[in-house]
Write a structure and sequence with these properties.
The complex is a heteropentamer, with one copy of chain A (252 residues), two copies of chain B (255 residues), one copy of chain C (221 residues) and one copy of chain D (305 residues). Chain A has 252 residues and is mostly helical. In chain A, 84% of the residues lie in helices and 0% in strands. Chain A has one domain (50-251): MetI-like fold (Orthogonal Bundle), CATH 1.10.3720.10. Chain A has helices spanning 4-27, 37-47, 51-84, 86-99, 104-114, 118-143, 147-155, 160-198, 204-213, 217-245, 247-251. The radius of gyration of chain A is 22 Å and the shape is globular. With 255 residues, chain B is an alpha/beta fold. Chain B contains nine helices and ten strands. The radius of gyration of chain D is 19 Å and the shape is globular. Chain D starts with 18 loop residues before the first strand and ends in a 21-residue tail after the last helix. In chain D, α1 crosses α9, α1 (31-38) packs across α10 and α9 packs across α10. Chain D has a five-stranded mixed β-sheet with strand order 2-1-3-10-4, sandwiched between helices. Chain D has a five-stranded mixed β-sheet with strand order 7-6-8-5-9, sandwiched between helices. In chain D, 37% of the residues lie in helices and 18% in strands. Classes of the chains: A mainly alpha (252), B alpha/beta (255), C mainly alpha (221), D alpha/beta (305). Chain A binds chain B through residues 146, 148-149, 151-158, 166-167, 170-171, 173, 246, 248-249, 251-252, and chain B through 45, 48-50, 68-74, 76, 78, 81-86, 95-96, 99, 127, 129-130, 147, 153. Bound molecules: adenosine-5'-triphosphate (ATP) (2 copies) and magnesium ion (2 copies). Chain A: Belongs to the binding-protein-dependent transport system permease family.
Chain lengths: 252, 255, 221, 305, 255
């Protein structure tokens, strides 16, 4: 079997390949207006020890974590409710489908008027965007539960709630986890975007605004790259947990 | 105890059950046989309250079954899908016992005991997908037996185990049934088995299923794998059931 | 809002010239971007879901890409392509591909082993296994991803029109915001909601066709 | 609203509110506030300042109205538009920045066929925001050259993106501010025309705004803020080096760039007449509906010192 | 044709097969019996190239099996999971025929014919989840037969059908086997069935499975459900197999 190290190695090769390709393309002079990949990486490395950036990152991290935690806490129960009660879902579906395509970016100006606390504003926008993957994946996950498994528990006299918690939830859990994983990245994207659009005292997005004001494209991209890197780490962590918890699913 | 009165069921436009009439007394073990696709599983699902009959009524202790009745256990024909892949065999068996308000330790003890009875003492920690078909089937039997239901529905419960294990399980069911006074409705394709196990054998006709025959099995209890099967009544009944299934015709006795 | 979009003449189904100018290009880009992203996401997702080597190599790149805020990429696309339709479509594709991709990977990676073994035993060719076993198996998940990405496409359409665009719903939204025409802003938001609802409803119709077997198989009792 | 959260002084003569959330933009316009912080002018007044970087006045002013911010740097065009749109009532409590020659310029690519402002007829022009100071200045400047600009010629995009847009021909010209003028010049872009000349010469650009509510409730705080800023404005308007030193502290304009960029003026008084000029031009070009009197917005320091 | 040489298999730390040695001649029908969990399915999966034996070799026509061999069909024990729920019964049966380069029409004809042979002519348009357990099992048998493999592996193929249908299917397999010269390895729990069907009966020992007995069935062909089962050799072999399974001891003949 492949080991963890070959996986890491291959992943590194994949990333390196992409970067080298980009560097070569830039050096070949097709896109002279972008800073070189090597420059950006150097800046990114500098940023990781830059106090100002780190405090910005901490602030973004806070709104990301708060937003994601609330998303999970709200999204899964609602998803379970709707997934388990198709009639209720049919009733609220128009509302959901109406709200879903409204860009959070468009809502920010309106949200600014409602939330006076920076963290509240940011978390609210994060939740608004990140809850959909959790919700939709939960609903679809519940639809995919084997009816025989559900009937088994029902036949033992368990009520709908017990069936939901003991069969539907575990059996849909892997798919819900995928939804959370999707939401985690969406939350990162939104945590930064809301700062970009709404500004604030600190945050990676605010750092990018500053860099933009100074015409420092290299810093803007470097901050973006670090954001992506964070997303990568978060995902690796999620996948590792999923692999452990949902071993039964791949072995089957 | 259980009264099935003119029950019909239609899936969409397809009629699976064509008016089944059947009564089970308390503590009775009734075997149901019939051709493949005649509606045996459907009948069991109706009794379990998992599907609503489209016609007729089902009474349990005089009360119409609208939901799943209390104190019921089912061994599904599709046993592999009825086990939860995220739980070990022991956990699968122990799960329903929560309904009985048993604490963790006694759930565990009961589960281990039931697994031992079906010959899986060593496989308690295995996950369903680490087990052979026959082992999975035995887990699902253990789960039902550990639950000690007052009504037990079994759909082809011994189809995937070898002859020896099958006999052991048959005797286990007979013992548990007698000991705890369960009422059992057991679907099987094995005519010998139906006669060996049943207090009565009910033969369903080709789809849409109706009761084509209902034979009292007057064999001495306790049954014995060798003696009973050599019993003259056994041989006669076996032939009778065979004839009923084959021909769907009533035996001379009943006309 | 009513006046803004719907007070047009009957011959234009009540849509104003303004609306007629605004909708078709926007929606065109949305659909092109969504379809392109969906196809790419499904193909790539299935490949990654079934190939460990590929997933080893590409997973980090994908996870990285997923966490990059698409607005931050607009300038890069823009340097690569030229502002206007190509950049906007690139933005939409980049923004909406992830749910499809991730769900397709998940769906393809968890096809029932017994299904695959059956296919293998009967010697089905690689394309047949993909087309007849893996795709249908993964379809429920892919469809969930498609549904997520469809509304996301609407959002990305708006975002892509915020920079360097001179038409489209996003552009209208931005000008309304920059001119502090709050009713128009609400008008745009409601319009997006309605469009999203309509898109989703059409999608559900298609979904019912594709996944009819699934919902019926899963209903049973 | 939440404007009176934060620490409140018990001293009857001190400011009502001692910690202020102040919105700024990471551009040269905001330099004096950094100077005031660095030189301790706010401290002297008993104020401490929390800086919040804003994406634009259009987002910052609603924050002031809602109470997220106490004070913000805002360009006048946005402030007047928002006030007329009824999205809040504001007071301008101090002037901050005023155009000087070559601080806001229309630029073209190195080898552009466009040689004179008149060549811009019907051409695409990049601006950072629509219906704002950029479009206003460009429209007025081209009007002088006899070109009537159609609003659809303006292509909105962030300032950092304009270089690429010029290069790949997405737009024919771009209206830029510092430090982008210097940066792009270094890369070969050319100045076509100064947008702040003639009728727009010395055009007032940005000032400090608070909500009317805040102004009424915190007169002493406002006065203290005004005094601190005035001292900084004074310094900024006389000593370029002070500004250069302040720039890298709140923006990513590095010292080298700060040394070469063209700076605007940092006016020391808040002059009603000058601001009325902005409003009048906005009305003329249709940015405001009808005559707009700036007087109710002006809250100049009570004593001019 | 098929040589299984000292094949072992271990799942993680658990040894399922303990060195199985077995040879099948071309056109032979070998029945494999053994206690539940002894590794019968595992052995079949090794032959099918679905799992790699951890020890020993499998040769097919002299060539080592490393991948799934060509011209192979399997009826899985877990038949319900081996049918594709998004396809009708007919489509499930027709799918593998694409490999044979058959055109649409002839695929359809072949599928319909196979379904008819297993008694499902009327259910061709049904989806797997609209069918009873026995019907699903028959679809998967039909799929294997329609494919006309040169090597056919069947894992408990008749476990879910009624006695009558079972007999019909047994005879069908015998007919098809004889007619097309297939080599068949069939796992069953029914001792009678193993003797009735097999040219040889191989008995596996308790897990880890090894060959505990290999009996030549010298019954006259074609077999007949009534005559064969009454044949003296049948009765003797049946007892022999039973003893082998029960006791895991070798019969006197072989020691
Ligand atoms: N979900 C369903 N939708 C439509 N038809 C169904 C469904 N379930 C069962 N049927 C049909 O109903 C009939 C009876 O099915 P049932 O499963 O009750 O048969 P059975 O007697 O249990 O057969 P077996 O012995 O093969 O398990 C069958 O013909 C089957 O095709
Ligand atoms: N995926 C797996 N992981 C771990 N152990 C397994 C796995 N599959 C099977 N086993 C173990 O290997 C042994 C043999 O299993 P196998 O399925 O081959 O038995 P079998 O002879 O087919 O039994 P049955 O007649 O009950 O189907 C069993 O003890 C089982 O627990
Ligand atoms: Mg059945
Ligand atoms: Mg097996």
């Amino acid at each position: 079997m492949r080991t963890r190290s070959t996986r890491v190695l291959r992943g590194a090769v994949g990333v390196a390949g992409l970067l080298v390709a980009a560097e070569l393309a830039l050096r070949a002079g097709h896109v002279t207006l972008l800073p070189l990949v090597s420059t950006v990486l150097l800046r990114a490395a500098e940023l990781t020890v830059d106090g100002e950036f780190l405090s910005a990152a901490a602030s973004t991290l806070a709104s990301w974590a708060a937003g994601l935690a609330l998303t999970v806490a709200v999204g899964i129960p609602i998803g379970l409710l709707l997934g388990a009660m198709p009639k209720v879902e049919a009733v609220v579906r128009p509302l959901i489908e109406f709200l879903r395509p409204i860009p959070s970016v468009a809502l920010i100006p309106l949200a600014i008027l409602v939330f006076t606390e920076q963290l509240h504003l940011r978390a609210a926008i994060v939740i608004y965007a990140a809850c959909w993957p959790v919700l939709i994946n939960t609903i679809y996950g519940l639809k995919d539960v084997d009816p025989v498994a559900k009937e088994t528990l029902r036949s033992f006299g368990f009520g709908p709630l017990a069936v939901l918690v003991r069969v539907s939830l575990p059996s849909a859990a892997p798919f819900i986890a995928t939804g959370i994983r999707l939401a985690a990245s969406v939350a990162i994207v939104l945590a930064v975007s809301v700062e970009l659009v709404a500004g604030g005292t600190d945050g990676v997005g605010v750092y990018i605004i500053k860099a933009g004001g100074g015409g420092r494209t290299d810093l803007m991209i470097a901050a973006t790259v670090l954001t992506g890197l964070f997303g990568l780490l978060v995902n690796v962590a999620f996948v590792a947990v999923e692999r452990k918890v949902f071993r039964w699913r791949h072995a089957r | 105890m259980l009264e099935i009165i003119d029950v019909t069921h239609t899936y969409g436009a397809y009629q699976a059950l064509g008016g089944v009439k059947l009564t089970l007394a308390e503590g009775e073990l009734v075997c149901v046989v019939g051709p493949s696709g005649c509606g045996k599983s459907t009948l069991l699902r109706c009794v379990a309250g998992l599907v609503q009959p489209t016609g007729g009524r089902i009474l349990l202790d005089g009360v119409p079954v609208s939901q799943t009745p209390d104190n019921l256990a089912v061994v599904f024909q599709d046993y592999s899908r009825s086990l939860f892949p995220w739980m070990s065999a022991a956990a699968n068996v122990a799960l329903p016992l929560r309904r009985k308000g048993m604490d963790r330790a006694s759930r565990r003890t009961a589960a281990m005991e039931a697994l031992e009875q079906v010959g899986l003492a060593g496989a308690a920690g295995k996950y369903p997908w680490e087990m052979s078909g026959g082992m999975q089937q035995r887990v699902s039997i253990a789960r039902a037996l550990a639950y000690r239901p007052s009504l037990l529905l079994m759909d082809e419960p011994f189809g995937s185990v070898d002859a020896q294990t099958r006999e052991d399980l048959e005797d286990l069911v007979l013992r548990v049934c007698a000991h705890h006074g369960m009422t059992i409705m057991l679907v099987t394709h094995d005519i010998d088995e139906s006669v060996y196990l049943g207090d009565r054998v009910v033969v369903l006709s080709r789809s849409p299923g109706t009761v084509a025959g209902d034979l009292q099995v007057s064999l001495p209890s306790p049954r014995d794998q060798i003696a009973t099967r050599e019993h003259e009544t056994f041989v006669r009944l076996r032939a009778e059931v065979g004839r009923l299934i084959r021909g769907n015709q009533l035996s001379p006795q009943e006309t | 809002m009513y006046e803004l979009w719907f007070s047009g003449p009957v011959t234009h189904v009540f849509l104003t010239d303004d609306a007629l100018d605004t909708f078709p290009p926007s929606l065109g880009r949305l659909l092109v971007g969504w379809v392109a992203a969906s196809l790419a996401g499904i193909v790539l997702g299935l490949a990654i879901g079934r190939s460990r080597v590929l997933s080893d190599f590409l997973d980090p790149v994908i996870d990285f890409g997923r966490a990059v805020p698409p607005p931050m990429l607009v300038p890069i696309f823009f340097a690569l392509f030229r502002i206007g339709t190509p950049t906007q479509i690139a933005t939409i594709v980049f923004g909406v591909i992830w749910p499809v991709l991730i769900n397709a990977v998940d769906g393809a990676a968890t096809v029932d082993r017994q299904h695959l073994e059956t296919a293998k035993v009967f010697g089905l060719s690689r394309p047949q296994v993909i087309g007849r076993i893996i795709v249908p198996s993964a379809m429920p998940k892919i469809v969930a991803g498609l549904r997520l990405s469809l509304s996301l496409a609407l959002i990305m359409m708006v975002i892509s029109e915020l920079v360097g665009s001179t038409s489209g719903i996003g552009y209208r939204l931005m000008t309304a915001q920059q001119n502090f025409l709050i009713t128009d802003v609400w008008g745009c938001i409601v319009l997006l909601g309605v469009l999203g609802y309509l898109l989703n409803s059409s999608f559900l119709l298609v979904e019912n066709r594709i996944l009819g077997w699934h919902s019926r198989a899963r209903q049973n009792a | 609203s939440g404007s009176d959260t934060g620490s409140t002084s018990t001293n009857a003569n001190g400011p009502e509110k001692t910690t202020l959330k102040v919105g700024i933009l990471p551009i040269p316009d905001a330099a004096p506030i950094q100077i005031a912080i660095d030189k301790g002018f706010f401290k002297e007044e008993g104020l401490s300042i929390d800086l919040s970087i804003e994406e634009g006045a259009a987002k910052a002013l609603p924050k002031v109205a809602g109470g997220t911010l106490d004070v913000t740097l805002a360009n006048y065009v946005s402030a007047f538009s928002i006030q007329q749109a009824g999205l809040g009532k504001f007071k301008i409590i101090a002037d901050s920045f005023q155009a000087a020659p070559d601080t806001f310029v229309i630029m073209v690519a190195k080898d552009s066929p466009i040689k004179t402002p008149a060549d811009l007829a019907g051409k695409k022009i990049a601006v950072n925001t629509l219906n704002n100071i950029g479009t206003l200045a460009v429209t007025q400047t081209l009007k002088v050259s006899g070109v009537t600009v159609n609003p659809s010629q303006f292509v909105p995009m962030p300032l950092p993106d304009m270089a690429a847009a010029l290069k790949n021909g997405t737009v024919d010209a771009a209206w830029m501010a510092e430090p982008f003028i210097s940066i792009n010049q270094k890369q070969g872009a050319q100045k076509l025309v100064d947008s702040m000349a003639g009728p727009t010469a010395d055009f007032p650009v940005a000032g400090w705004g608070v909500s009317e509510d805040f102004y009424n409730k915190n007169p002493k705080t406002v006065a203290a803020f005004q005094r601190a800023v005035a001292k900084a404005q004074q310094l900024a308007s006389t000593d370029r080096k002070v500004v250069e030193a302040a720039l890298p502290k709140y923006s990513k304009i590095d010292a080298a760039t700060a040394a070469v960029i063209t700076l605007g003026k940092y006016p020391t008084t808040l002059n009603e007449g000058r601001l009325q000029r902005v409003a009048d031009l906005m009305t003329e070009l249709g940015y405001l509906k009808g005559h707009f009197d700036v007087k109710p917005l002006i809250a100049a320091p009570s004593t001019a010192g």
